[in-house]
Amino acid sequence: MEKNWLAQIQWNTDGLIPVIVQEQGSKDVLMMAWMNSDTLLETIELGQAIYWSRSRKKRWHKGEESGHFQNVQGVYLDCDGDTLLLVVEQVGAIACHTGAHSCFFQELESTSLPFGWKELSGVRK
Amino acid sequence: MEKNWLAQIQWNTDGLIPVIVQEQGSKDVLMMAWMNSDTLLETIELGQAIYWSRSRKKRWHKGEESGHFQNVQGVYLDCDGDTLLLVVEQVGAIACHTGAHSCFFQELESTSLPFGWKELSGVRK
């Protein structure tokens, strides 16, 4: 495989790049994860999201335990080459390990004191 | 100001957190940037996005030079507290320093060889 496109990516000092994951259709931002060059290549070859787990320090095929795979619909690189945007079909509509649709289910309530993170409820979560 | 909500954030070893920026309405992912606790506080107090520029190592009030300010509509924290999602009204509909609407205007063409990053054109960019 021609890999010039891979060399255009600005990996961080750990050899990783942050990956924003957006659901096709709803356009909801589901999560953020990280990839190294191996897992990015594998993601593209397989057509499903495979990340690098920084906490477990290992390859992580998203959905391997939950069944909530992410089928890749598009891969985008930002202007300075140091962030990826992955557009996916989210199997089961659940991206978060908590069972939530999106990992971003805590909204900052800052219109009255005390400020705090408030969980979204119902369909928004 | 009560700041317990600030203590719930998992800052990285540089005291920063990645911030995904999404446009209200279109739900387009516009860019990714970074904040420290000072710029996050200032963002919330001002109601406009203020980041920490890692390359320039300084506070960066988005739009201060271009006029393309980002008016904050919502702030969300992810499940493990280490990534923020900022929903904004993008003044001028231009978020990228290149003049593009979104920084993610390079799409990976991987259906035929050679693979490569292809710039989106027209309204998609």
Q: Which keywords apply here?
A:
four-stranded mixed beta sheet; two-stranded antiparallel sheet; 125 residues; globular; mainly beta; homodimer; Ubiquitin-like (UB roll)
**Helix fraction bin of chain A:** 10-25%
User: Would you list the SSEs of chain A in sequence order as H and E?
Assistant: HEEHEEEEEE
CATH architecture of chain A: Roll
Structural class of chain A: mainly beta
Side by side, the strands of the main sheet of chain A go: 2-1-6-5
Shape of chain A: globular
User: What does the main sheet of chain A amount to?
Assistant: 4 strands, mixed
Multimer state: homodimer
- Domain module tally of chain A: 1
Distance between the termini of chain A: 40 Å
What's this entry about, in short?
Two copies of one chain form a homodimer. By secondary structure, chain A is mainly beta.
Q: How would you characterize the overall build of this protein?
A:
The structure is a homodimer of 125-residue chains. With 125 residues, chain A is mainly β. Chain A has one domain (4-97): Phosphoribosyl-AMP cyclohydrolase (Ubiquitin-like (UB roll), Roll), CATH 3.10.20. Chain A has helices spanning 4-7, 37-46; strands spanning 17-23, 29-35, 50-53, 58-61, 70-77, 84-90, 106-109, 116-119. In chain A, the strands form three sheets. Chain A has a four-stranded mixed beta sheet with strand order 2-1-6-5, with helices on one face. The radius of gyration of chain A is 16 Å and the shape is globular. The first copy, chain A, starts with a helix and ends in a 6-residue tail after the last strand. The interface between A and B is large, with 41 and 41 residues. Strand 7 (106-109) of chain A pairs antiparallel with strand 5 (70-77) of chain B, so a sheet runs across the interface.
